Structures are given as structure tokens and as C-alpha cells.
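Incident review: delayed structure delivery

Summary: a single-chain prediction request sat in the queue longer than the usual turnaround. Root cause was a stuck worker, restarted by the on-call engineer. No data loss occurred. The affected request and its eventual output are reproduced below so the record is complete for anyone auditing the incident later.

Affected input:
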Amino acid sequence: MYPTALLIVDVQNDFCPGGALAVSDGDQVIAPLNRAAQTIVQRGGLVVASRDWHPPTTRHFQQYGGQWPVHCVQGTLGAAFHPDLRLPDGAVIVSKGTGAEDDGYSAFEGRTDDGSTLDETLRAHGVRRLLVGGLATDYCVRASVLDALKHGYEVVVLTDAIRGVNLQPDDSARALQEMQTHGARLLATDEALRDDN
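Output delivered after worker restart:
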């Protein structure tokens, strides 16, 4: 049984410095997430990593009417997890945004390699509590956290393991306030891990 899971959201090359849709200081989330993943595994918990996994042609991209430049196209280097992210053996990968009509902001919209949803995977492992970090605070982290709360999970957002896009300067601050209003707790990684022990 895995009472707690760590959800690592979209720590992919295209969202990190030098990537096609780079989040400012996006790579700064990696060290706390690696620490959290190691601790969660040592305690018998589950680590899940979501990824944008877009087809080359999708309405998510600007050239087809969407909001974003081309990023995280299936099988490309940009879609790969950042090389410094140390996913443990047995980590579950959830791919999202895989269809031509699919934005895929929330990890709960994605599926594992065997076709399971994130909710199905977490429930199969007895998970009730989620620690969430990754990219980006104001989009995929926000959407994933709000969906997790809707599904009845206890959610802790790791405040030092997230970074935002901030198309508007206060987007991340508003996203954090929204997540908290809906029931998420906001804690630094080490505090969250102490709290979980």
C-alpha cells in the first residue's frame, strides 16, 4: 500500500531553460523533487511523473489556433524528462495532451502506458495523499492539483519545487491562492516530508 504519492508534473526539457517553452528557473524544481522522490520511495510510496506528449499537429499549438509554441512533441528531445531528474525504478509515467484536440493541462487527463488513468493508478495503490511539484505552477500544476482535490485526495503543493509561466506577473500567486482556497496545503518540500513521516 502507498499512502502517499509524489506527483512530478512535466519536468521536461522544453519547459526548462533552453527549451521551446522555457519556464524561468524551471530547472530549480529538480533538486527538491529528487529529494522528495528518494524519500517517498524509501518509505514505500509511489512516484508518478506526468509529461506533455503532444502530436506534431494539435490545436494546442499556435500554428493550429492554440496558445502555445510547438513543444513536447512525442518522441523528441524536448519532450524527454530533464536529464537531472532522477526518476526511481518503478516510477509511473502518465502521458497527457496526446490527441489533436487535447490540451492536457491536468495529469488526471493523461494515461499510463497500460491505459490506466492517474486516478485509477493511485487508487490501485491505495494512495490518499499527494505531494505535487513541477511545471508550471499556473497551468499544469494548477490543473492537476484542482483535479486531485475534486477526486478527493489530500494535496500538498511543494512550494519550493514549482515555477510558473506568469504570462501576467501575478498568475502563479493567483494559482497558489486558488489551489489553497480549494483545499490544498502549501508547504516547502522538507517540511512536507517531515509532516508525512
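Verification: The chain has one domain: 4-196.
Action items: add queue-age alerting; document worker restart procedure.
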